[in-house]
Design brief:
Number of strands: 9
Distance between the termini: 51 Å
Number of domains: 2
Strand order of the largest sheet: 1-2-3-4-6-9
Low-confidence stretches: none
Order of helices and strands: HEEHEHHEEHEEHHEHEHHHH
Radius of gyration: 19 Å
Strand content: 15-25%
CATH topology of the largest domain: 2-enoyl-CoA Hydratase, Chain A, domain 1
Structural class: alpha/beta
Number of helices: 12
């Protein structure tokens, strides 16, 4: 990979069916400023449009996963009274990336080490699944500076932990551990920090064994289930399973199964 790429605020690597986006502002603990938000939007669209990718891993380089919104940028905007245009522009790009993460018919796995704070915590949990190092710490951080959550923080967490636990986390917890996040269903696996890279790869490979129609169909059905009337959800299930049954993956698998059964 050319050196120029290595200095970009976020990097994309594709190996077979697994894509990896690396947050790459280690000196700023991978905090989210306009340049990284724009880059993430661009890389997210690239992954979404790549039919060979089944799993997207999101990780951070350096000592932290992500410290959240870049307070240098936001502080300067507050000083110069340009909050609405500056934060509006930042979130336009960053929220476009979050929408892509939720919409793409691929499983998105966050791989978290060190600190995930504010929008960084939101990113860890707005993905479909999260694997965390045993030393990871999650810090809501919003209420402390007098603001409400952004970056998809409420999108990812409320669906997992429910309204009361979400209110508790955002307003009454300074930070919580990977173990607590696991107990609340926010983290799928906890692994020793030294093994995070290898274990993330293993988990991603396991997820990538699922054929694309199974991944895409399951993801969209699961996310709409909570807000869709039963009949509409059943119709969607019918449509997705019939689509999936038209794929070679299904034909091969069912043939294997039926020949075994004889």
């Amino acid at each position: 990979m050319p050196i120029a790429d290595e200095t970009a605020p976020a990097l994309l690597r594709i190996e077979g069916p697994i894509a990896t986006i690396t947050l790459n502002r280690p000196a700023a603990f991978n905090s989210i400023n306009l340049s990284i938000a724009q880059k993430l939007e661009q890389l997210g669209a690239e992954v979404e449009g790549n039919d060979d990718v089944r799993v997207l891993v999101i990780e951070g380089t350096g000592r932290a996963f992500s410290a959240g919104g870049d307070l240098q940028t936001i502080g300067a905007a507050a000083e110069s009274d340009t909050i609405a245009p500056v934060v509006g522009e930042l979130l336009k790009h960053y929220h476009a990336f979050i929408e892509t993460v939720r919409r793409m018919p691929k499983i998105v796995l966050s791989s978290v080490h060190g600190s995930a704070a504010g929008a960084g915590m939101g990113l860890a949990f707005v993905t479909d699944l999260c694997i965390a190092a045993d030393d990871a710490r999650f810090t809501p951080a919003y209420a402390k500076i007098g603001v409400s959550p952004d970056g998809g923080s409420t999108v990812g967490m409320v669906g997992t932990v429910g309204t009361r636990r979400a209110l508790q986390l955002f307003l009454a917890e300074d930070s919580f551990s990977a173990q607590q996040a696991y107990d609340w269903g926010l983290v799928a696996r906890i692994v020793p920090a030294a093994d995070l890279k290898a274990e993330t790869r293993k988990f991603a490979e396991r997820l990538a064994q699922n054929p694309p129609a199974a991944i895409g169909g399951t993801k969209s059905l699961v996310y709409q289930a909570a807000v869709t009337p039963t009949k509409q959800q059943l119709d969607a299930e019918e449509e997705k399973i019939i689509d999936a049954m038209h794929t070679d993956d299904f034909r091969v698998a069912v043939k294997k199964f039926t020949s075994k059964a004889k």
